[in-house]
Amino acid sequence: MHSTRPYRHGNLPAALQAAARQILDENGLQLVGLRETARRVGVSATAAYRHFASKDDLLASVAAEGFRELAAAMEDATRGPNLLTRAGLAYIEFAHQNPGLFRLMFGPLLADRAKYPALQAASTRVEDLLLRGVADLDQRALDQNLAAMAAWGVVHGLSHLIVDGFFPAARSVAQAEEILAKIRLPRPPTSEPP
What we know:
Layout: H1 12-27, H2 34-41, H3 45-49, H4 55-77, H5 83-97, H6 99-105, H7 108-111, H8 117-133, H9 146-163, H10 172-182
Helix pairs in contact: 1-2, 1-4, 1-6, 4-5, 4-6, 4-8, 5-6, 5-8, 5-9, 5-10, 9-10
């Protein structure tokens, strides 16, 4: 059980986001709310509402922070050869280490990301990193890029299988690495005349 020590100073939005992440990890998305989050931080719900207009506003800010962390992990991992495989493994490791946050990031709020500029920008950064990994194969936008969509589909699917417990936790990342090493991405169609 977490203490409800009074909040005294500092960055209240960041404290509320941290408390929301704790609730996500402990109890899942359904129990995250502004009142419970405020209680954990030791402030009134009114204080929380000064920074976040709704539960969805709070969750969108937490999801945006998750996408920024994921992008940073992917960027750190892509120094060296096999950029796409390394970025994919960073993605999978992030999901493995942050299951509640990962579920939030790719949940219903992502479909409404246009309402939340910070979430839109942070999720687009991850998409851009995925595109960069297949840039030598295909220069098209993500939704028209078969190589990028195939890579993302495999990595995202493996991430969900790990988060949902279908891989033994002790070997999940190693198994994902073995699977990614066997994948051959589709080549883009050539535009040569017949």
